[in-house]
Amino acid sequence: MATDKNGFEIPDQMRDFAEKSVDQARKAFDDFMDVTQKAVSTAEGSATAMQTGATDVNRKALSFAEEHVDAAFKFAQDIVKAKDIESMMKLQQDYLRQQMESLGEQARDISETATKAAQDAAESSKP
What we know:
By secondary structure, the protein is mostly helical. The protein has one domain. The chain contains three helices and two strands, in the order E-E-H-H-H. The chain has helices at residues 12-43, 49-81, 85-124, and strands at 2-3, 9-10. Strands 1-2 form a two-stranded antiparallel sheet. A hairpin with a 5-residue loop joins strand 1 and strand 2. The termini are far apart. The mean pLDDT is 83.
């Protein structure tokens, strides 16, 4: 059992249960992502210039969502394995900092992709 200096104990069975729950949720999410990606691929069959741009944005958004869920699962797994409250707080601080950095980069990337898609659509509609 893990014990911190305040006497807080996390039983091994609780850790095992939490870890199995995270693994099961991860598998369910991976299955969902597989089905979603297949659906997105099927919908792309009849793309025009605007649809192609929208597809690029959708793919990026889907990829970014998957990255965030991956990070959340990794965070959950790390928290389950944490030995004490201090390490939990450090993990949370690091996770939040990384997510904020990632969100900023992804927002810029989506904005650039959407702008390019609109420009491409406008170019393709010119006579």
